[in-house]
Every structure is written in structure tokens, then in C-alpha cells.
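Quick one: examine the sequence and C-alpha cells given here and explain what the C-alpha cells say about the fold. Here goes:
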Amino acid sequence: MRALGDWQELKLTQITGRMCLERFNEMKDHSGFYFARQTFKVLHAIYEVARAYYEDADEQSLIKSNPVQKLTALKLWGKPKRRSDCLFPPEISAWFRSVQRLRNKEERDYLTWLLFTGWRASESACARFDWVNSGRGYIALPAQFTKTASELN
């Protein structure tokens, strides 16, 4: 994890709740709440897997506690607000013109694709050529790849 790169050499048992709290607050102030939240959600999951996986001869976990729990105890996770920002019609043409001036062809095509399909970035990342129906002029995104679990055509 790039955001916790200076912790890479630490053993999981060396990371404390105070360290998590301090780094979470630093990240929140410098990179934003959502970035900090996601980073520590991943770290929390890593600890939970390690606690379940690494055991001693008596089948007792070698990881005694999850230091990220400090954030839970202090109720710092918060509930993320649903994003509601969007481009309005007069802004779309200016945004599109700016995108078309990008030098990086892949980035330009990707952003144009997102605009014209309305697909989420995560949906676009898993797109496959066999989803294209050139005879009927559409692309079908199977339900298992959508956030809403419904097929998109």
C-alpha cells in the first residue's frame, strides 16, 4: 500500500492503534477523508485475514488484536456521503473539448468512453470484446459486473 509505504518493514504486531489513529488523521487532512477511510478499511481487512490465518500450535491467533479497531472505537469511520456532483449540459461541452485536447490517447479515449457509455470506471475496466454486438449496435454489460446487479445495454 503506497499510502502506508513507510510501514512496509513493520511486522503486523508492531503497528499500534495510536499509529493508526495518527496516520488516519494525517491522511484525512492531506489526502481527504475517503482516501484515508479506504486505506484503513483495507488495512483492517488485512489484519482480519492474518488473525484467521496465522495460528500457533494451540490454534491461537498470532495476531492478538487489530489496531485499526481504534478507529472503530472512536467512531472515526463515518458514513461516506453519496456523491452528488455532476456536469450539467453547458459544462459537458467544455469538459469534452478539454478531454479531446489531452495528449495521452488512451486517457482521452477512456474518458470519452466513460462519457458516452455512462459506465462506471470499475465496469469499464472489466469490459470485453465479446460483449459488443456490432450487428445491433450496442454493448451489453452483464449484470454480475455492474454495481446495481442489472444488465446494461
